[in-house]
Amino acid sequence: MNIRVGNGPENVSAALQIWASRRGIGLEYIQPGKPQQNAYVERYNRTVRHEWLGQYILER
User: Fold this and answer.
1) Distance (Å, rounded) from C-alpha 9 to C-alpha 38?
2) Domain hosting residue 16, numbered range
3) How many whole angstroms separate alpha carbon 44 and alpha carbon 36?
4) Phi, psi torsion values for 14, nearest 5 degrees
5) Which InterPro entries did the record assign (predicted)?
6) Rg of the chain in Å (alpha carbons)
């Protein structure tokens, strides 16, 4: 089994690599600048931003 992940620093951590290795899970990294290769996660992120967080007024 493999998990497709982005190349962000939170996803290339040693802890994630160790966790996956111990469980026999491979990590497949998407190409930098190609978020469409991880379309399910991108769709989820869009839903969170526009449909959930958009219901609230957030001050910066």
Assistant:
1) 16
2) 2-55
3) 12
4) -65, -35
5) Integrase_cat-core (IPR001584), RNaseH-like_sf (IPR012337), RNaseH_sf (IPR036397)
6) 15
